[in-house]
Amino acid sequence: xxxxxxxxxxxxxxxxxxxxxxxxxxxxxxxxxxxxxxxxxxxxxxxxxxxxxxxxxxxxxxxxxxxxxxxxxxxxxxxxxxxxxxxxxxxxxxxxxxxxxxxxxxxxxxxxxxxxxxxxxxxxxxxxxxxxxxxxxxxxxxxxxxxxxxxxxxxxxxxxxxxxxxxxxxxxxxxxxxxxxxxxxxxxxxxxxxxxxxxxxxxxxxxxxxxxxxxxxxxxxxxxxxxxxxxxxxxxxxxxxxxxxxxxxxxxxxxxxxxxxxxxxxxxx
Amino acid sequence: xxxxxxxxxxxxxxxxxxxxxxxxxxxxxxxxxxxxxxxxxxxxxxxxxxxxxxxxxxxxxxxxxxxxxxxxxxxxxxxxxxxxxxxxxxxxxxxxxxxxxxxxxxxxxxxxxxxxxxxxxxxxxxxxxxxxxxxxxxxxxxxxxxxxxxxxxxxxxxxxxxxxxxxxxxxxxxxxxxxxxxxxxxxxxxxxxxxxxxxxxxxxxxxxxxxxxxxxxxxxxxxxxxxxxxxxxxxxxxxxxxxxxxxxxxxxxxxxxxxxxxxxxxxxxxxxxxxxxxxxxxxxxxxxxxxxxxxxxxxxxxxxxxxxxxxxxxxxxxxxxxxxxxxxxxxxxxxxxxxxxxxxxx
Lengths: 269, 346
Hints:
heterodimer; A: alpha/beta; 6-stranded mixed β-sheet; B: mainly alpha; ABC transporter involved in vitamin B12 uptake, BtuC
């Protein structure tokens, strides 16, 4: 259980996160939506423990987040960033094993090896185990990194997985597969919080959606509750139409095309 | 290939090259006699008719030089690998990024000041002072370059190499300034080691250098796992529960301790720190737990071999060892640049 109460965060005069509260239960997948600069990444860094809130509190499994040592935290929460540059040609198996680093001192145990194998099987990178990370496609690299994050917290019930736009730059199959893996992880009682760009992905897979604007939480609820033309306009400043998928009953959001006045082309000054 | 075999091959090659090197020179001593004399000296197996002249040549003249080559090579190899790991950059080499220049600047400053302010110091203390000063110079430069070469928490290759050029130029200019202000005796001392040479080897330099090199060689491999995590990026390493700042400080301190003290006694020897980790990774893989100790061994081996070449190629004249390492290392550096051109574009 992660409980966030009235947290604010600022760097210098810039308030990046303002008075946000919410909580997430084990087994839940929350998507965070918002335009660029809405405070999504800052919120994620606060939840990861990288930033300390100026105001408010974060409780993680019964304890203030700040009370955890870096190592304790590493065993219970994993973070997957948007960009993952690896400076040396490690192979995929070695990258995934890095997720087990908080769990062993010098040599990985047989148990660590078996977790790495299980995770790679779950994410579909087992066949790439011996390949150099630098030779993988963007989607494969991201799945190797996802495997690393999962290996880090694999056996901890109520562990927290934080992700910053995990599917940006991936093709559609990888996007769907990745979210499906995450959804499956919530069956293991993980708590998953992911920043997403794609509202429809959020609608398909997230149990709850939190929408941010200017560092504040504007909406918080299921896709059916919060995704509608009004909220989408407030958050993203685009006109849209929402439909319901007749078979899955999930919300679908279609942005309307923007038509500029031909007499006043927008790109000329 | 199993890692144990690789280590064994390196150790055996180092011993053989060392014995060959000790036997080599104006008075040539065959390798079996070298081993026999060593065993005799160690009291393990006494031999009846000891060749006194050979014994003196080996233990007074050539042995210190061999040990100096081994220590300096190990220092260059392991700090090259560590610095590359911490900078997250396979081109970060102590010489190229100006760490060695920082060390040599401090060493020159000490030599320049020695007769005026530190005249009372004995010779032994002088060596330690020199090593400490160079260590400080290397450490300070490394921290400056590290800070300069980062933008938004990410390393920037172009800035790192350009900052290296600037620091090299600055240190070169200041070194030049000090040499102009130096007396003739000081000047001789300064130019002597600015050539990058093992010629100054004595038992005294070897004993001075030993702790400065052996402590890092023994401690740095313990940071292997952390350096692996560093290759994911500092932020990711932090998420894995590592104390990023402490690791950074420890690794930079230990590797500049080795590199600075080595530079203070032999001058700047370029490219070994670049070349060795690259070769090692090709053979043993990229896991820093093995790359670090194997780089120390390979660096030592490479210096012993380079020393053999420098003494034989135009014998009896001895080529500065820095010439040999640059002749081999610079083309390899160019090769890496061409290979990684796309990744390195500004």
